[in-house]
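User: structure tokens for GNAT family N-acetyltransferase, please.
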Amino acid sequence: MPGTLISAPLSAPRHHLEESEDIDLLRSHLKVHYRSLGPRSRRLRFMGDPSVEALDRLADRADPELVLELVEEGAVRAMLEAHASAPGHVEVAISVEDRYQGKGLGRALFEEGLVILAARGFRTADLVCLRENTALLHLVSRAGARMRMEDGEVQIAIELDHVLDHVRLSAAPAPAAGA
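Assistant: Done. Predicted tokens:
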């Protein structure tokens, strides 16, 4: 099943501007984004140093459940991908272009993506990252992730029902004064 492509401007990352079920368009966006990542960002996203050809092959074979992207100056600057891995489970990956890191783009995509995936019935979001990916580790720890260190990698699992509970609590109106 093709994924959903949702584009959003940096100023309003949760505003969905476009939806598409065209797998070729999704793959094209992935390919362009992968190529835009600098060496460190590629290593953090792919846990290695893939060649441009390898990145293109990954994009050409991708069959994501969900792709969220943030667009600035007419180009995708950050992307979240989610790939169903087993019934009820989804593997999530986030990448942000070098010069856009540290601006909250990954966090915005991560939070939006988890809410969408939970609403679609996924129970667990799994991520794998290098130990040096401290920004992602901080992000997932805030989401109540279970983490297991293994050599230089971190295996991460997030229970999505907890994410929805948190969203519901934060969206609930505050009790009236004197109530």
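User: Anything notable?

Assistant: The longest strand covers residues 75-86.
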